[in-house]
Amino acid sequence: IINVAGLAVGIASCIIIVLFVLGELSFDRHHQFADRIYRVNTEIKFGGNHFRMAHANSALPEILADNFPEIESFVRTKSSGLRFVKNAQGSENFKETRVRWADSTFFKVFSVPLVEGNAEKALTEPNTVAISRTIAEKYFPNGNAIGGSPVFDNNWNHKVTAIFEDIPAASHFHHDILIAMAGLDDIESVSLVSGSDFTAYLLLRDGADSEKLEEKFPG
To answer: Which of 11, 3, 76, 4 has its CA nearest to residue 40?
Structure first.
């Protein structure tokens, strides 16, 4: 009994460990360009303090893309915080926490399939949004989400230009509402020392070496 129980526990433990490792390794692998996407991290040394953050300011990705041909494209996102959302014809507000600002290049960098809409045109104009299938069914149960105008915080209308498939569980982000970055004042800043609250990603060109590229970055 002891031998059988020990063997069973050992096999079960191994299976659980293997499943856990496979689950961890599967994260973000659904993106077509997964091997070419890199997040921009920031390292700050100030007053004896040393910070490492998974954030960057709004100007940095564009500056890098303009100066290093190894970079094919970039996308920035920024948390929009908690929003109260309702259908334009509705009266009940719902709390939505998975809301972010995003560049129009979001669907170029990340392989998030669209249910409706044009990936190249979505999020190109101010006051437009792309929403997940779940959000579309929640606020537009009759199937007329495209062109609809959900109301944010009772006074902020946006036009729905795209509906995307729900982002898989094995992803490091789970956005349900993407608001067009176009028109956001924060992206106009050219400072490299302020506003480091964006999450930025670089899409490298096919064959580009990320380590050699990083070595080129000025101190």
So the answer is: 76
